[in-house]
Specification:
21 strands, N-acetylglucosamine-6-phosphate deacetylase, alpha/beta, TIM Barrel, GlcNAc_6-P_deAcase, 10 helices, Urease, subunit C, domain 1, hydrolase, eight-stranded parallel β-sheet, eight-stranded mixed β-sheet
Length: 377
């Protein structure tokens, strides 16, 4: 079925076009233009006064709707449904630290789902190759240094669908692990790390191209010890994840990061099961999490344990922090897509998948399309 969305402010790829239109046909963008002369379609949507954006892409999220992505196919479906209503049309499925055996099973499940559903972009392994001193909400006893045999088991189980891995580059064997993952087409992200500036830069020179939730679970910036964040900000090859909930990173800092790394910020949720549900007690990777006033923390030590953020809320908070809406939307679309080697998505050029979000002027989601099919909200 063809769908025409017209009279919109189209924001796509870091640019904006006033009075634009986009035509979806057979699940994809068949044409686009501007002005009042546009093609006919079976369904016509008047987007006057609204913004049309590519669908949002989340490369780091753990669940929603009371379900954790570690819980299998049904849990993934539950969580994805919540995020889809908030404009996230495609996502990596992030897995927390567990045993290699369990991860092998879970990445296999995600590989099966990705074969059937193009909106599931694959898996993101956030662990177990993390620094114990910066473990965050990961089980200490299951953290380990990377080894070639374990990595090969994971890659075989993922069948090409492991798209991102977070690791601490100072761990023994990390250099070889980075090469092994990169050769398999996996984007390597440094995070949960005690790396200093030089160690982070060495990892980037080795091929790491991402920083997992920048500022969190790593050394901070000091004027005599700039640390890994400054290394990432200065390296044009590196994309920095930011959780814009006002808890993980102070909102006053977000505009500074966007200015320091233009086109290299990916707004992620790091969302856990409480997202879309509310306060209460939850499980994250076998750890008890207490959510109060929307903030998730481990019951054991109070460490932040993911977020209850959705990407539309991240957009609003980022714009309120002073970031231009064009740049904020790029950080939700083309930038995260590119960071995991998927430049074919995250835009609305002719031929692209019909994944789109219609937003009010206050950046509230009005309508969502996935492969040109409207999401019932």
């Amino acid at each position: 079925m063809s769908t025409l969305i017209h009279s919109v402010r189209l924001i796509d790829g870091g640019t904006e076009i006033e009075n634009a239109w986009v035509l979806f046909d057979d699940g994809r963008v068949s044409s686009r233009g501007e002005g009042t002369s546009y093609p006919t379609a079976r369904e016509v949507v008047d987007g006057s006064g609204c913004i049309l954006s590519p669908g949002f892409i989340d490369i780091h999220g753990h669940g929603a709707g009371g379900a954790s992505y570690d819980g299998g196919a049904d849990a993934i479906a539950t969580g994805r449904a919540v995020h889809r209503e908030h404009g996230t049309t495609a996502a990596l499925i992030s897995l927390v630290t567990t045993s290699i055996d369990d991860l092998v099973t879970r990445v296999g499940i995600i590989a099966d789902l990705a074969e059937r559903d193009s909106s599931i972009l694959g898996s993101h392994l956030e662990g177990p190759f993390l620094d114990p001193a910066h473990k965050g909400a990961h089980t200490l006893e299951l953290l380990r240094a990377p080894d070639a045999a374990s990595i090969e088991r994971l890659l075989e189980a993922g069948r090409g669908t492991i798209r991102q891995v977070t690791l601490a580059p100072e761990l023994p064997g990390a250099d070889d692990a980075i090469q092994q993952f990169i050769e398999a087409g996996v984007a390597v992200s440094i995070g949960h790390t005690d790396a200093d500036y030089a160690t982070a830069q060495r990892a980037f020179d080795a091929g790491a191209t991402l920083m997992t939730h920048a500022f969190n679970a790593m050394r901070g910036i000091h004027h005599r010890a700039p640390g890994p964040i400054v290394a990432a900000l200065r390296d044009p090859r590196v994309t920095l994840e930011i959780i814009a909930d006002g808890v993980h990173v102070d909102l006053s800092l977000i505009a500074v990061v966007f200015s320091a790394a233009p086109g290299r910020v990916a707004l992620v949720t790091d969302a856990m099961a409480a997202t879309g549900v509310g306060d209460g007690c939850y499980d994250l990777g076998g750890l008890q999490v207490e959510v109060s006033a929307g903030v998730a923390r481990l019951a054991s030590d109070g460490a932040i344990a993911g977020s209850t953020l959705t990407q539309d809320e991240a957009l609003r908070r980022t714009v309120d922090a002073g970031v231009p809406v064009v740049e904020a939307i790029r950080a939700l679309t083309s930038t995260p897509a590119r960071s995991i080697g998927r430049p074919d998505i995250g835009h609305l050029e002719t031929g692209a998948s019909g994944d789109a979000v219609l937003l009010d002027t206050d950046l509230t989601v009005r309508r969502v399309w996935v492969a040109a099919q409207e999401v019932i909200r």
